[in-house]
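User: I'm putting together notes for a lab meeting next week and I want to include a structural view of one of the chains we've been expressing. I don't have a solved structure, so I'd like a prediction I can at least talk through. The sequence is below, exactly as it appears in our construct file.
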Amino acid sequence: MITLDHIKQARETIAPYLKRTPLERSETLSQRFGTNVYVKYELFQKTGSFKPRGAFNTILSLNENERKKGVVAVSGGNHAQGVAYAAATLGVESLILMPENTPQNYLDAARGYGAAIELLPNMAEAFAGLERHVANGMTLVHPFDDERVIAGQGTVGLEILEDCPQVTDIFVSIGGGGLSSGVAIGTRTSARSPRILGVETVGADAMSQALAAGHPVTLPAITSIAKTLGAPAVTERTLKLTQDHLESVTVVTDEEALHELNYIAERLKVICEPASSCNLAAADKLKHLFTPESHVVIILCGGNFSLDSYCQAT
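Assistant: Thanks for the context. Below is the predicted structure for the 314-residue chain, given as structure tokens.
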């Protein structure tokens, strides 16, 4: 069981290697929603997303022999960079299994951080390919189904609570459920806990489908433009954490996410991913929940969206 103490310990462990990303009140968004809205700029984290938090917490837990044998991960983008960066920083070899349709900017970035890349036909086969490397002694750094990873991602929640102790609502996107689960536990105190509002996009909605079915569901394909939300399935662990800790999961369309991506670029002056802008789209759908006294945090969890992809999409 992951507790708040695990997340606090993770923060101490990984603090020397990470940025403490800013949380700022947005006057533009506050006026738009008639309440107090803040943005957690996690896209300013090293590698452009929250992923190094969990990667560092996992790799730092390994013994010397495990580190010598290296680490392996599967990713369509951000997790690849997070693992590659953490491994290189700690002097550990890394191998990333990636689907063949991975955008070139993600491949270049992972290689740039020192990882070896193995391409497979799709994300499902990439996950299936892990077994042989783990059998050869490499340690799996899972993108979400690992308590060390979830605790590392949960440090985002600690920072939100420290910078905005009055927070009432947090919008956080869901790929496999590691970040959302960690943020939920990381902001849970004995006094009061904010509502954690999970967000997915149509075509990358493994969690909402699992919630409806009552068990993990494997998606036949990831069709959303939000590729970094593209877990083919959630796990029993992250499904249970979502059921226990999240208020709801809202699914938005790619069109809605891209509309808000443009809005964020024009008004907040940053280019994020659709996997981040979908949170603002969900906030628009759920704005009836807010009062003038609300304090709403939108997590921009990643910014690794190439200019080519941006121009093609918009």
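A couple of points you could mention at the meeting. The chain has a mean pLDDT of 94. The beta strands are 23-25, 36-41, 71-74, 94-99, 116-120, 139-140, 169-173, 195-201, 248-252, 295-300.

User: Perfect, that's what I needed.
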